[in-house]
Amino acid sequence: MIVACALALIAKFVPICVVVANALADLARVIVVAVVELTLNLTPLPKASVEVAAGLSQKQAENLALKSEKIKNIVGKNKVAKIIFVPNKLINIVV
Length: 95
Fold this sequence. Notes:
four-stranded mixed beta sheet, Ubiquitin-like (UB roll), alpha+beta, 2 domains, 3 helices, elongated
C-alpha cells in the first residue's frame, strides 16, 4: 500500500518537475545572452573591454566607451573623427 501511494505521488509530480527544469533551462539561456563583452578599439587596436547589457544602443555604447579611463587617456585632446559600432561586439574609435 505504501509503495503504491509513493508511486502515485511520484507519477503526479515528475511531469511538474520536468516542466520546471525546462523552464529553468530556458531562463538560464536568457540570462547568459543578457550580458555581452564589448571591445573598445582605438585606431585600430583593442584597448579595453567592458561587460554591457545585450542590445545596448549605439549612443549608449559610445558614451560608455568615451568615458572609459583608458580611452580618455589615449584620446587625450585629439578630436574623434569617426566611431564605428558593431552591436554586441565592438566600438572602434578613430582619431
